[in-house]
Amino acid sequence: YKWKTDKLGFKNLKVKKDYSFIALGDSYVEGMCSNIDETFPHYLNKKNIDTYNLGVQGWSDKQALSALNIIENENINYEGIIFGYLADRFNREKNFLNKKEAAGGIGKIIEIELSS
Question: Tell me, what's the pLDDT at 27?
Fold first, then answer.
């Protein structure tokens, strides 16, 4: 498949100012390893339900909130949010909770978010 993004870096063909919904979530929402026309936000668009795909690879809700901030800074309007993710996505994080110090970004996230 070919990886394509819109001008904001998300997996859409274009950016408009008004949507019925935005789709937030992980790589399932983004459509990892899929063409744009194989994502569920694209299928909703084909059914005349204007949906902007804000899915991002990873496992962090913080990533989804950052994506939401990007479109709000761009003054993009939406009526509702669809939040999607794969089940059992938090199983990975529990593996790091009892470690002395986790490496990289995950270590910082655990230090700030999960240990407090």
Answer: 83
